[in-house]
Amino acid sequence: MATILIVEDEIPINELIKRNLQSVGHTCISVFDGKAATQELAQREVDLVLLDIMLPELDGYEVFQQIRGTPTIFLTARSSLSDKVKGLTLGADDYLVKPFEMLELLARVDAVLRRTRKASKEYELDGVKIDFESRRVFLHEQPVECTPKEFDLLEVLVNNRNIALSRDKLLELAWGFDYAGDTRTVDVHIQKLRKKLQMESRIKTVYKMGYRLEV
Ligand code: CA
Predict the structure, then answer these.
(1) C-alpha angle 179/181/183, rounded to 5°?
(2) How far apart are CA 177 and CA 130, in angstroms?
(3) Is residue 64 within 8 Å of 37, Cβ to Cβ?
């Protein structure tokens, strides 16, 4: 997974982000002001920076000017259009307005990592190997036929592993916001994935809620 630098001076928010990113397998480094961010980035390479705009020492824009080239998602409490435009004009990869849902953050992080990282787009668990680039799945080296939606759902589960996802959230993430189908669709696809990939004990049912891929 990825190494992510979290630059956020509000300690509870910084820690919440860190916990959530770590729970899906990322390595996180937390810093609490702009100067510490540039010092950290001078010493090591990271895959992604989550960068608050209102920061002590140097603000997020100043930090961003100095770290050119590292994929960056701006985080800010400001929701004005001009800030959003400024962040994206400077070349940020994405922009999140606080407060945001953690699932929203994880989805954006995955999207940026997917865009910016060409290599290591594989995931392996037990005998299951998933190649995200070619969208192929193998079980004990044997190809498994998955429909496009089964693959999308599997990808969502993997990207949000260890997190309980409601059926509605799964529909939203795998089928899209405007999908009009009902949540039974999710159950049917989950059953198929469990069977095809022998993941009965990995894809857990979360009582009265949805599902979680447990790793
Ligand atoms: Ca701040």
Answers:
(1) 110
(2) 25
(3) no
Q: State pLDDT tens for residues 113-168.
A: 888 875 457 889 999 999 988 899 999 999 999 999 999 999 999 988 888 999 99
Whether the CB-CB separation of 5 and 29 falls below 8 Å is answered with yes
Check whether residue 49 and residue 108 sit in a common domain: yes
Interval between CA 97 and ligand 1 midpoint (Å):
12
Asked if 63 and 159 sit in the same domain, the reply is: no
**170 and 84 within one domain:** no
Is there a single domain that holds both residue 14 and residue 103?
yes
Domain that holds residue 204: 122-213
Q: How far is the CA of 55 from the centre of ligand 1 (A)?
A: 5
Helices 102-116 and 11-23 sit at what angle, rounded to 10 degrees?
A: 60
136 and 63 assigned to the same domain: no
Distance 162 CA to ligand 1 centre (A): 29
Letter for the amino acid at 101? Answer: E
Q: Decide if 15 contacts 60 (C-beta within 8 A).
A: no
Condensed to tens digits (0 to 9), the pLDDT of residues 22-68 reads 998 899 999 999 999 999 998 888 999 999 999 999 999 999 998 87
Q: Which residues contact 7 (CB under 8 A, 6 or more apart)?
A: 31, 32, 33, 34, 36, 37, 49, 50, 51, 52, 55, 60, 63
